[in-house]
Every structure is written in structure tokens, then in C-alpha cells.
Amino acid sequence: MQEPADQSVVLNCLCVSSSASLAGMRLHQGDVAVSLGTSDTVFLWLQEPRPALEGHIFCNPVELQAYMALLCFKNGSLTRERIRNQCAAGSWEDFSDALRETPIGNNRNIGFYFDTMEITPPAVGVHRFDPNDCEVSGWSPEVEVRALVEGQFLSRRLHAERLGYSIIPGTRVLATGGASANKQILQ
């Protein structure tokens, strides 16, 4: 039986990788970078971090008086692909159309989709809520698509803010990874 990797080795790899990403994406104070891949990763420039049990805080590689944070979300593109297959006949074009056809805010319908045990927060299952905060079993395909995308990004923002991130004038959101090619997801 193979022994699991030493925690310090894993943490060092995370630190080097995320430091290179923050520097390579040329983040500045207030910026956030989102890598939309199999797992979604959020990199943050922080001035005054608030360490928490979820996420990681490191020294900032380009500013000695600042910090950077890394948040990883396991249910990223694979979850988006599942909803695309269920609600948009496996078509990214139809998925994008569903986003265009629904209003921002989704008429206060929101969903949280954890196909596998999530890292941040530790949760599993699909949780859909209507405008009255009542859990519901499902929606039309268009509402489902928007609930997924908005729920994912609201969750990322909530956890970023818990680590000390805040939007400031001039904040930029930089996206990379496979799903960043979809303009409707970026909106």
C-alpha cells in the first residue's frame, strides 16, 4: 500500500503553483482570477487576510506587504457538463442560449450543485431554492442552467470574502480554463 503524500509536500506544490499563477496572470490588489476547469480554482490578491479552515493563504509572490489566497472547488466543469447534458441536450450553444434567455438573478431561484463531496464547503447533493427560500426538486431547463452558474459563482465569492477579499474600484475578474471560452458563463 502506497503512503499518502506528505502534507508539507502537497502544500509546497500548491504554493508554488498558485504563486506562479498569481504572478503569471498579473493580478493586482482587488483582482481575482478564476480557473474554470474540472475543479474551479480561485486566486485572490489580499491585503488583510482572514485565515479560515477553508482555502489557503500564502505570501504574495509579487508584493511583500500583501497575501494571496487559493480556493479550490471540486464541482466545476464536470458539474456544468452534467447540467448541460441534462438541460441542453449536450450542447454548449443551447446551454448559452438558456443563460441568455433567463434574467440575471434568475428571479431569485438559486441552486448549489455538489455531484461529489465538495472541498469548499464540505457538502454533497443538489440543493435548489425558490424565491421564498423553500427547497424545490427542479425547474425548467433554462432556470436550472442559470441556477447552476449563478450558484457556483456566488459560492466562490462568498468563500473569497470570508478569507478577506473585497471588491474595490477597478477590480478585475480574469478567467482561464476550458469554460472561460463560453462568453455567457463569463457574464
TrEMBL record:
Residues in Carbohydrate kinase FGGY C-terminal domain copies: 33-187
Matches recorded under Pfam families: FGGY_C
Keyword Coiled coil: no
Keyword field: Kinase, Transferase
Coiled coil ranges: none
SUPFAM superfamilies: Actin-like ATPase domain
InterPro entries: ATPase_NBD, FGGY_C
Keyword Zinc belongs to the record: no
Superkingdom of origin organism: Eukaryota
Family classification: Belongs to the FGGY kinase family.
PANTHER family listed in its UniProt record: SUGAR KINASE, XYLULOSE KINASE
Protein's UniProt name: Carbohydrate kinase FGGY C-terminal domain-containing protein
